[in-house]
Design a protein that fits this description.
By secondary structure, the protein is α/β, with parallel strands linked by helices. It folds into two domains: about 375 residues, no CATH class; about 140 residues, no CATH class. It has 27 helices and seven strands. The strands form two sheets. Strands 4-3-5-7-6 form a five-stranded mixed sheet. A two-stranded antiparallel ribbon has the order 1-2. A hairpin with a 2-residue loop joins β1 and β2.
Length: about 575
């Protein structure tokens, strides 16, 4: 978004046209290839690593339910916007609902984030941009591997919205400037269609982009934003305004927080997150001395706060000194967007949520440091400064928080070459899901044919915890592995304080099922939040009174069918 093309070209840091543009493009292509290679190294390990059974399960099941005609927030709980499900359902329609398809799409989302970071930081030089991008790579793959999570897709759209918005400010022609403003607004709108809770980040970025732009550019941006958000009108019309507000606002903001939030700051000595404890337990040995996992989370939390503070301070100083500088504007826009992501970490400061914010904010720290160094020592060569800053920053991550950056990257890479890969396949009906425990995978592989034998296509399947008074997680992958059965519950995704709430209707869902698959895998769940609280016992009473145990499979899976069907058979 620019006042005029002349304004953009006369800013203090705008590059002058040179005959070396072809060479610059070639060198950019090399940098882009290096980033691609950084993703390629751990790719085999990532594709074969176990995924989180609930999160990866619902990213397979929810889009398939959409293809079957179900509506998010009306027919099943979905805490985010519908955008991700609509896109994935289209992808599955074309390529099939498979684990490989889902993970390759997850890879595409992560690469989109990283390349967006590269082009945001490109104004500080190719070396600086490459350092920021490689930092983003080692941060973003740790939380959930290649699971196609809506948050990552939303971040990708938001980051490219920043890139397009800045491109509109420095466009060479008014036509391109207007076009990029429209694209920027559209991408921001689509980011919100994925995750409504990106609203603060989008608002701050928009406020940073807008000053100094012409009314026509603001109108084009607003038009694009409206196009991106318009599908919400369709979603609300299909789901109903009450269901949409309940699923996307009330449940995630008010009902879920108590059962998912973790203390601030994180504990130095022990993991607050149950999932974090399990994830750290299965990592490959690390020969270099390091702090224990909880201490790394503690330092990462405060490191992220410092990184965002640094970005904000440097950006404000830069824009005050050079109000028309596109580089200063880029830093301010990136800082605003990054700071707006912080609530994601504050509500649950574990490695996943730290990485989901840090993949942008922490990755851009090198450009803030370069900006400071060049302010103090303007005669120092930019490339040398960028190289030194980037190397020092990656070394700092390597030494301070290796478990959630470099170590995870090396772990996935080593697994790709056959080094102690803890992945075991659950297979049924031509579908595969990967589990991290052999006993559970074996149990599932024994259970699935039995479930097939005692059901008919269209029968209703309920998957839940062994004790339904507590619902911290659910083995959603069973819905994916038994595609001929219909989910019997609104709570395909189970969350504490939501699925086990007194008025949730969970008991009625259990009562409507033909078979149940209950898991004791999460009996050990113990977090310092409301997930410890018991909900009503009525769902358990329905299980006892209406269902008979078919068998226990492996150490943790229990298969039930209706007692009258069992006696009649």
């Amino acid at each position: 978004m620019a006042k005029t093309a002349v304004d953009a070209r006369t800013t203090p840091d705008a590059p002058a046209p040179t005959r070396a543009s072809d060479e610059r493009r070639s060198l950019d292509a090399v940098a882009i290839a290096i980033i691609a290679a950084a993703f390629l190294l751990p790719l085999r390990g990532l594709l074969n690593a176990p995924g989180p059974p609930m999160e990866e399960g619902f990213m397979l099941v929810f889009p398939e339910r959409v293809l079957a005609g179900d509506i998010p927030n009306k027919d099943f709980l979905h805490l985010y916007g519908p955008g991700s499900l609509w896109v994935l359902s289209a992808v599955y329609k074309v390529f099939g609902t498979t684990l490989l398809t889902e993970r390759l799409f997850g890879l595409f989302q992560e690469m989109a984030v990283v390349y967006g970071i590269y082009f945001l930081a490109r104004r500080w030089g190719r070396t600086a941009a490459l350092g920021c991008a490689l930092t983003a790579v080692v941060i973003i793959i740790e939380p959930h591997g290649l699971v196609a999570m809506p948050w990552v897709g939303a971040i990708a759209l938001g980051v490219w919205g920043l890139v397009a918005g800045l491109a509109s400010r420095e466009a060479a022609t008014p036509e391109r400037s207007r076009r990029m403003a429209l694209v920027s607004g559209l991408l921001f709108g689509l980011a919100l269609l994925y995750r409504l809770d990106l609203a603060i980040a989008v608002l701050l970025a928009t406020l940073a982009l807008a000053p100094g732009t012409t009314p026509i550019l603001k109108k084009r941006f607003a038009l694009g934003l409206g196009f991106g958000l318009f599908p919400y009108v369709i979603h609300v019309a299909m789901a109903g305004i009450g269901n949409a507000v309940q699923g996307m606002v009330i449940d995630p903001i008010f009902n879920l927080r108590g059962g998912r939030s973790l203390p601030i700051p994180p504990d130095w000595s022990i993991f607050d997150s149950t999932v974090q404890f399990v994830a750290d337990f299965v990592k490959l040995p690390w020969p270099i001395p390091r702090l224990h996992g909880p201490a790394q989370i503690f330092l990462w939390f405060f490191g992220l706060l410092f990184a965002l503070l640094l970005l904000g301070i440097v950006a404000v100083r830069a824009i005050r000194r050079h109000p028309t500088s596109i580089r200063a504007r880029a830093l301010l826009v990136a800082a605003g967007f990054s700071i707006g992501l912080l609530p994601q970490t504050l509500q649950r400061p574990d490695a996943t949520h730290l990485a989901w914010v840090g993949c942008v904010g922490m990755s851009l720290v090198p450009i803030a440091v370069i900006e400071l160094v060049q302010g103090w020592r303007p005669a120092w060569p930019r490339r040398a400064v960028a190289s030194a800053v980037g190397a020092a920053y990656l070394l700092g991550l390597f030494l301070v928080i290796p478990n959630y950056t470099i170590r995870s990257y090396v772990d996935f890479t080593a697994q790709g070459f056959g080094e102690r890969a803890r992945s075991y396949k659950m297979r049924h009906d031509g579908r595969t899901f990967i589990n991290g425990q052999k006993s559970n995978a074996d149990g599932a592989n024994e259970l699935l044919p039995v479930a097939d034998r005692i059901t008919d296509p269209g029968d209703r399947l309920f998957v839940g915890t062994k004790d339904l008074r507590q619902t911290p997680m659910s083995e959603v992958s069973f819905y994916y592995l038994l595609p001929d059965l219909v989910p019997a519950t609104y709570y395909i995704e189970m969350d504490p304080g939501v699925a086990n709430a007194p008025d949730s209707g969970l008991a009625d869902d259990v009562r409507s099922a033909d078979i149940l698959i209950l898991s004791s895998a999460w009996d050990y769940w113990d977090e310092p939040n409301d997930s410890r609280k018991f909900g009503p016992s009525e769902p358990n009473e329905v299980v006892r009174n209406k269902f008979c145990l078919v068998g226990k499979f492996g150490p943790e899976y229990y298969l039930y069918e209706r007692c009258e069907k069992s006696k009649g058979g």
